[in-house]
Batch of 4 targets.
Target 1
Amino acid sequence: MNQVKKADPNNKTVAENRKARFSYEVLDTIETGLVLTGTEVKSLRQGQANIQDSYASAEDGEIWLINSYLPEYLQANRFNHEPRRRRKLLVSKREMAKLAQSVEREGMTLVPLKIYFNDRGRAKLLLAIARGKKLHDKRETEKQRDWSREKGRLLKERG
C-alpha cells in the first residue's frame, strides 16, 4: 500500500521575506534561533508575522533582529508583548564573529529570509549575508525570470 506522508505540522514557514532575493544578492545563509516570549510563540503559530522591512545588526557582541512584526496574541490580555520590539538572535560565537566581520569590513547586510518552526517545534530564522543589488542587476534578474518562464511555456507547448 502506498502511504502518503503528511506534512509535519511543526516544520512550517511562518513568515517569508520574498523581496529580499530580488533586492539583495544572497551570499551565505545561517540558521539562527530566536529569543521569544510565550505570547510571541503563540502569535507565530497563528502565522501572522511579517519580516518584510526587518534587518539584523551586530551590537555589543550580540545579534539583534530589528523591526520585525509579530502581532499581539489576542488571548494574552495584559501579559502581551510589544509587536515591534528588538529580538535577540541565538548564534554561536564563531558565526557571530563571522557575521560581524562581514558587515563591518565588506559592507554586507544581514537580511532575514524566513521564520519557520523546525522538526523539534523550535522557532528558527534563516538569516542571509547579502550585498545590495544595483538597479541594472535587478533588471537582469527580472529578464532571467521572464525568460525561464517563457522557456517553460514553450517546452510545455511542444512537449
Target 2
Amino acid sequence: MLRLPADLRGAFKEPMGRVYTDPVDLLRDADQTEGPIVAVGDVVTFHLRQADRDPDVAVIDGKTKRDAVDEAVAEVLDGDADRIEVENPPATLSEALLDALVTALDAADPTVIFVDGEEDLATLPAIVAAPIGASVVYGQPDEGMVHVPVDEETKAEARELLSQFEGDVEAAFARLD
C-alpha cells in the first residue's frame, strides 16, 4: 500500500520522543497516560514484558537489526497474547499491517502482530491509529526505547511523514482513522 521513498529515510534518524534505557522508567511515564501501550519491535516488547508489562499491542518480526533474536528473547516473545500474522515487505506498510494495527487496538486483550517481513515502519501508523492518551514505544538502535505519547501533535507529525510515502496515502489514512 505505502512505500518509503529513499529520500525520506533520513527523517527516521531522530527519535520522535524521549529515549529511555530503563523500561521501568519508561513505564512509569507511560502509565501516567490512560491509553494502551503499543510496542513496535522485538527488543522493546521483550524489555516491557521483562518489566511485567505486556503491551496492549506488540508488533514484532522475530528479528533485531536484521538478525534473528536470540533464544531468550524469542521465549519471552512467545507469550499468551492473541496473535495476528501479516506480511509486510521491507520499506513498506502493507494493507494487512494497517488493518492488523486497527484490529489489535480495538481488541479487549493484548495482541501480538507477527510480521513476516519487516515491522520497522509500523510506528507511524500506530501513532495515527492509536487513541489520544496512548503510548507508542519503539526501539532506537544502539540508544534505547523511544516513548511517544500520542497526542494531536504527535499524530500530526506521523501523518505528515506518512503523507510523503509513495502509494495510496489517502486509502491508508482511511484504514487507520
Target 3
Amino acid sequence: MAMALLDQIRSIFDGDPGVRKVADDPVLSAELLMLFRMILADGSVSESEMVAFRRICKEAFGIPETSIDSVIEYLNDFGYETNGSQAIALFRDLDVERRKLLAQHMAEIAKADSKLAENEVRLLRRTLDLLDISPVDVVKPQE
C-alpha cells in the first residue's frame, strides 16, 4: 500500500512510468504506433481490438494497466510525427524474432474483432513485406 502511494507521488513529479518507458524507447514507440494503426485500419475502433492492444501492452511490454490510457494519449500527441514507413524502418535492423513479434501482434489486433477488413490485410501484408517476414511466421506455434 505504501509503495503504491509512493509510486503515485513519484509519477506526479516524474511523469507516468509507462509513458516514460515508451518515450525512452523509440522501437517500442514505433511498435505501439504500428499496433494503433492496425486498430484504425478498418475505420473503426472496436472494444475487442482495444482489449487486445491493452493485453499486448501489459504482457509483452510490461506497461502497467494504470499507464495504458496515458500511453495512448502520448501516442496520439506525438505519433503524428512518425509515419508508418519511419516506424517500420526502426525494425529493419532488429533480429528476426522481434520483427516476427511485431507482425504477430498486428495480426492479433486485426483478428480481435473477428473480421479481417481489406485495409487490415493490406497493412499487414505491406508490413510483412517491409520487415521481410513470411506470412507463415505470423502464425503463432501452438503451445
Target 4
Amino acid sequence: MAINLQKGQRENINAPKFTIGLGWDANSSSTGGQFDLDASIFGLNENKKLVEDKFFVFFNNLQTPDKSITHTGDNLTGDGDGDDEQIKIDLTGIDSRVKEIIVVVTIHEADSRSQNFGQVRNSFIRIFNTDTKEEILKYELDEDFSIETAVEFGRIYERNGEWKFEAVGNGQREGLQKYLDLYN
C-alpha cells in the first residue's frame, strides 16, 4: 500500500528500480493556448551541482550516459488520467557521483502563453516499483501556485547507503532557467 506524503515528509524508497510518475490537469485555459508541462531531472553530485551536462534529463536528452535515468518521452498535452510523464530510475547502475536527483516540472513557454501553475490542478508525483508496478509513495501538490512557472515536485537523495524521497513542492517564477543556473 502506497504512502501518501505531505510537503516536507521523507520516506525510504526501498526499490533498486523504480519509476517516477508525474501527473497534472490544466484548467480550461483563458489564454487560449495548450498547456505543455515538462518533467526534468537533475542528477547532482555531493556539491549539489550537475554531475555533468548529460545528467540533466528532459525531453531533448532522454537518458543519462550510464542509462540509469531514462525519461520515457514528452507528453505535449497532459490529456487523460494517470501519469502524464514518467522517468525510470535504476539505482543498481547509477553513476556513483550521483547523490541527489531533483524532479522539476515546468510550463513550456509559460511567459509567452501567460500561463502559470495556478491554472494547473491535480498535480502529483508518485514512485512505483518498476518490476512489480506496486506504488511505493505518492505526493499530491495541493498548493495554489498562482504565479509560479516551475515547481520542484520532489528530490531523491542518498543517505547512509539508502535512497529516500522528500516531498518538496516549492515553486518559483523564473522557469527552468533558474534551475539550470542553480545546478550548473
